[in-house]
Amino acid sequence: MLCLLPKRSLLLILLIYVCNNSAQGQIQQIEQELQGLSLIKDSVALINSLNKLGTLYRTRNADSCFYYGVKAKGMAAKIHYQRGQIEASHLIAFAFYKRGLYAESLELLGKILSQYQQLNDTEKIITVYLDMTFVMNKGVSDRSKIISLLQKTIQIGKKLKKDSIMSRVYANYGLRNSNLPQDSVYYYLNKSEEIASRYKDENILIYDRLWRGRLLVSKGQLQEALTLAKQSLLEARRTGNTDLVINALFLMTEFHDKNPKKQLEYYYQAYEVAQKNGDNSIEIYILHNALETAKQLGDKDEIIKVYFELDKSITAEWEKSKKFINDYVAYNAVQDSNKLLSEKNAQRTIWLLVISFSSVVIVLGIYLMMLRRDRKAKAQIEALNDMANMQIMTMEEAKHQAVKEEQQRLGQDLHDGLSSSIAAIRYQLETLKMDTSDIDLKKKLDKLQKETEKAYKVARNKSHEWFSAADEQQEQSFEKQIILLTDNSLPDSRYNKDIHIDNSALSGVDMDTRIALLRIIQEAITNIIKHARAKNVGILIYEEEDTLLLTISDDGIGLDEKKSRNSNSTMGLQSIRRRVQSLNGETKIHSDANGTEIIVSIRLATWRHTTH
Prior knowledge:
By secondary structure, the chain is α+β, with helices and mostly antiparallel strands. The protein has helices at about 5-15, 25-35, 45-55, 60-80, 80-100, 100-120, 120-140, 145-155, 165-175, 180-200, 200-220, 220-240, 240-255, 260-275, 280-295, 300-335, 345-435, 440-490, 510-530, 560-565, 570-580, 605-610; strands spanning about 495-500, 535-545, 545-555, 585-590, 595-605. The chain has three domains: about 5-235, Alpha Horseshoe (Serine Threonine Protein Phosphatase 5, Tetratricopeptide repeat); about 380-490; about 490-610, Heat Shock Protein 90 (2-Layer Sandwich), CATH 3.30.565.10. The protein has 22 helices and five strands. A five-stranded mixed beta sheet has the order 1-2-3-5-4. α15 runs antiparallel to α16 (about 300-335).
């Protein structure tokens, strides 16, 4: 697996969606569109032009992107121009994302996705999926969902005739999927480069080269990486793509870990480039890294300088955010109050300010309420999943119990029926052989007796085999259920698990007791997840002196003595004790700062006496 420096690779993620046009090219296109707006008479063409302007502003100014999106959507709604409304909503959703309104952005993108699916516009569907991954990476941060979404995007992209957008998809997938082996990362990187080369997409090619440079750094091939970084920096400056220039300068800092002063120079260069681009969030990100380096350098003048610039950027970003919030609140207020605002009426202006303030409070209240509901729904879903898993395990245990009983019944029938009949035949053959004096007949009877002997042994062995196999299968099934339970609850990425189960200790243990043991293990694991903050978890089942012992241990923070008096925090432990008591067993709990150990002991003598 490839592991990159988090702060450096983060900028690569931030910039992957901006590798479309050079800064100079964007400015020229924006100027052309603005000049042509006043000349457009057709409503559809005007809406398309406004949407194009918003798209050009996506990577430069979230406020302008939002402004043109809202304007285009209003006009498209009046003339019922569906595609114009959808594309305008897409701009608004992206502006929400840039301004940190992740829940609103995801909700709007979901609606847009279904509309593009109705239009069967594959390229737009892929664009929405990519935007969703950016929003989820910032808001939800559910890595598995992001990877799943990108995999789905790759499958959809196979339908495209013009697949230029797939260079971004493959690059994005290789960058975000940290679990990919090295050869797979290079596979997706090569796919991205192949498509970008075919469409002569210089920006993606430079982006891929930067990504390749970071892979070389992670493998310690610094000289090759440095050559690639310098080449990428020159090409990025030539194309005028400021975002790629910033990324290349960040890559250059990695070759000067022992020279903070040189690193700081590259950060200042990146900051100057970011100022031209006008994205304050990137400026702040660069200055935070510069501040760390300045502190490492120990130069007070440099630290003061960085703090000064950082304060300017944060202030500018805050002013933009306030303006965006005001625009957003005003937009909603206008929609809800049928445009009551009038510039010529001071009294109406005051009322609108009151409404705007109320809208902010309402939006904030709704957001907090939705957040609370979301958390509650998530908890309910987790509880339902746990219940479903336990029901599945119960059904599995019941199935294996039924299979065991059926195999044992068949074995018993085979032993008592067929084996007995064969034994009787063998006895009759032996009697006939003794009674006859015909030599040829004796030989035939002798052969027949030997074949009967073989059939008897086969039937007897098979009946014994079915008896023993039924027990072994049930023990293996129980062990699989425990492993399934722990794998679902304790992912390998966060926990080290040590599970040992002595199958012979479980022989003769009935199904109800097995299910109770599973529930005890589940309750203990739930406590570990919620309270322990552990990294290592151990589960051990064995027999000692006719006693079944279950030990569950972790290396977490232990049980707080004050918290242990709280009934809410010990509900799980009380549940474990009640279950063990119902099995006539004992529970012992040892806990300190080094972790917690739960030992459950249940006498086996009664079961085995009943079974045997």
